Amino acid sequence: MADTQAKDGYYYTEKHEWVKVDGDVALIGITDFAQNALGDIVFIDLPKPGKLINAKDSLGTIESVKAAEDLYSPISGEVVETNASLGSNPQSVNAEPFDTWMVKLKNIQTSELSGLLSAAQYKEYVSKLD
Fold this sequence. Notes:
The glycine cleavage system catalyzes the degradation of glycine. The H protein shuttles the methylamine group of glycine from the P protein to the T protein. Pfam families: GCV_H. The glycine cleavage system is composed of four proteins: P, T, L and H. Keywords: Lipoyl. By secondary structure, this protein is of the alpha+beta class. The protein is 15% helix and 33% strand. The protein is built from 3 helices and 9 strands. It has helices at residues 32-38, 92-95, 119-127, and strands at 11-12, 17-22, 25-30, 41-45, 52-53, 58-64, 68-72, 77-82, 103-106. The strands form 2 sheets. Strands 1-2-3-9-8-5 form a 6-stranded antiparallel β-sheet. A hairpin with a 2-residue loop joins strand 2 (17-22) and strand 3. The protein is globular and about 35 Å long.
């Protein structure tokens, strides 16, 4: 399994979203596995700042040349910022999925992190999908 499948310090969902906690803010994006399955990403629709999100709620949609998929929040919180550069450059998710966050949440429920997968658990999960 390639090291690009999961990075330590991130938490993962079985729907292939990741969350990385940075102080009191959580960054959310999609994994390398997800971007590879989607193909060339052409559009991302994200919520407006101020929106309250519960874990597993839809955060928006991501569209590729192959499909459109819902994005789901791994944890609860309030949208504080969306990655504005994705409007003109959505394909950056294809190039750098772990460095390209989509949404920042504040007032996060860190207790929910224990229900997510670690990097090792996610790699094992993905290895069973191949």
